[in-house]
Amino acid sequence: MATVTALYAGLCAILLIALAARVVQFRWSKNVGMGSGDDRLNQVRVRVHANATEYMPMALLLMLIAELNGLGALWLHILGALFVFGRLLHAFGLTWGKGGYHPGRFFGTAISWTVILVLAVIDIVKALGAA
């Protein structure tokens, strides 16, 4: 069973829905059917949600592969918690920075990329070791 990955997949799903809800709330309040309605804040909200949908699947897939190949629960929790923290930091940073530079955006992205790269290397090493 992949219970650790299941935990972080659930947390990521909740975050993804929360980010989507911010976009939907804006669209309803401004009667915008699609897109951002040329509103800068909603462009940022749309981008924050899109960015999460771009990175979450790969991170979770790599985590699942690592878990199924025997990576210890402690490492999975460290990497999973870091990834969720990075995604939260990115979302808040991009929003607070109004789409520009903000330390939260930078560090959130850096953490997310680092977790993905670490998991990728772990998976590659495990695959080569099994061959």
Automatic annotation (TrEMBL):
It comes from the Bacteria. The chain crosses the membrane at residues 6-24, 59-86, 106-125. It is found in: Membrane. The keyword Transmembrane helix applies. One of its GO terms (cellular component) is membrane. Its main location: membrane. Keywords: Membrane, Transmembrane, Transmembrane helix. SUPFAM superfamilies: MAPEG domain-like. This is Glutathione S-transferase.
